[in-house]
Specification:
The chain is of the alpha/beta class. The protein has helices at about 5-15, 20-30, 40-50, 50-60, 65-80, 90-110, 115-125, 140-150, 165-175, 190-200, 240-250, 260; strands at about 130, 155-160, 180-185, 205-210, 225, 230, 235.
């Protein structure tokens, strides 16, 4: 019995004018149709011997917004097949698959690293560097701050609200801070918005990691970086945390000896 994913891929590719590199992607997918719905764009690129942006362009050539959309479509093809293993996926597997999609979207966005590079320069130049994350975002901010302390001379974690928050922002400004990094996942408290407005008014350049361009923190941010979470009872944070690590790498490229100390 023909594999439904392979059948659907042939239908999608038929009539499309693909480049040689895109043709290699199609052939690689057809050779391993059972794995395709679960491969990241990076893994598929390695399998086909092409770049990750080429995988994105291949998906767009087939009429999708990007590779995650193509992969979701192929999963739906498998799910619709009677007796499909994907159709029987439990809630935990679905959570993992959704987070894989978030990470794939992040990888696609990082194909153009201009914003991350700019953020790294801003963060490296700020001494001290305040890192803001309240409630659910405290873990994200703490993860960045913990690793950043190995390469940056003065990291100040802001994970407490109330009047102490504005006091600590003032202290950072007096000590010479020029930028602030904020983690603002879905459902962040109003206090985060107020803190960013206060910090910006005090002269700090705001770099914010959030989930969408309509978040309340956007009007109070100078440089936005996007990383989606997935709501399954509570928001998952793999993509924002990984983006924090990416920002740290970008910061290290500017700090003297940063890459050596991080290693």
């Amino acid at each position: 019995m023909p594999n439904p994913v392979a059948t659907r891929l042939r239908q999608l590719v038929e009539g499309c004018r693909l480049t040689p590199a895109q043709g290699r992607i199609a052939q690689s997918m057809l050779r391993r149709p059972a794995e395709v719905p679960f491969l990241s764009s990076v893994a598929l690129a390695e399998l086909a011997g092409v770049s990750q942006p080429t995988v994105t362009r291949f998906a767009m050539a087939l009429g999708f917004d990007g590779y995650p959309a193509l992969r979701r479509h192929l999963r739906e093809v498998v799910t619709a097949e009677p007796g499909s293993a994907v159709a029987e996926a439990n809630v935990y597997q679905k959570l993992v698959h959704a987070e894989i999609d978030n990470l794939s979207s992040l990888a696609t966005a990082l194909a153009d690293p201009v914003s991350v590079v700019r953020a790294g320069r801003l963060l490296a130049a700020s001494h001290p560097l305040p890192v803001l994350g309240l409630r659910a975002a405290a873990a994200q901010a703490g993860d960045f701050a913990g690793f950043a302390r190995t390469v940056h001379p003065d990291i100040r974690l802001l994970d407490e609200g109330g009047t102490v928050l504005t006091d600590r922002i003032d202290a950072a400004v007096r000590a010479g801070a020029s930028a602030l990094l904020c983690f603002a996942p879905p459902g962040h408290p109003r206090e985060v918005v107020d803190a960013l407005a206060y910090a910006r008014g005090a002269g700090l350049t705001i770099v914010t990691v959030t989930d969408n361009s309509f978040a309340p923190v956007v009007p109070h941010t100078d440089l936005l970086l996007f990383a989606a979470g997935t709501a399954h009872g509570s928001d998952t944070v793999c993509a924002p945390v990984l983006l924090g690590r990416v920002l740290l790498q970008a910061t290290c490229r500017t700090l003297p000896g940063g890459r050596v100390r991080l290693a």
